[in-house]
Amino acid sequence: MFEQEKAEKEKKSERELKARVLELESDYAEEQQKLIAITSDMTRQYKQMQDALLKDMKALKQTSLEKDNILSIFLHIFKNSFIFIWIKNKRMRKSPK
């Protein structure tokens, strides 16, 4: 009888251990799925941020080019105005009073 009880306890312990192993395997698989989901979401967010950054960089580059063009136009106008005033002053000095 003692041998039979011992064998039954061992089988019960073995079943409990197998059940615990199955539970742990299930938990592990669940955690793996969570990890994949989190990694996928982080990758999506990173790509989204990268795309937004590239879009902003292009917009800033365009704005910079537009401002450079405007500056070139104003510098050209200023240079021409300065030359015009200089020539006018020179003529005024040469003309008899």
Question: If you had to describe this structure to a student in words, what would you say it looks like?
Answer:
This protein is mainly alpha-helical and 97 residues long. The termini are far apart. The protein contains 1 helix and no strands.
- Please give the largest β-sheet: none
Strand content: under 5%
- Amino- and carboxy-terminal Cα gap: 142 Å
Along the chain, the helix and strand elements come as: H
Please provide the count of β strands: 0
| Continuous helix count | 1
**What percentage of residues falls in helices of 4 or more residues?**
over 70%
**Secondary-structure class:** mainly alpha
- Per the principal axes of the C-alpha atoms, what is the gross shape? rod-shaped
C-alpha Rg (nearest Å):
41 Å
Overall mean pLDDT: 92
Spans of at least 5 consecutive residues whose pLDDT stays below 50 are none
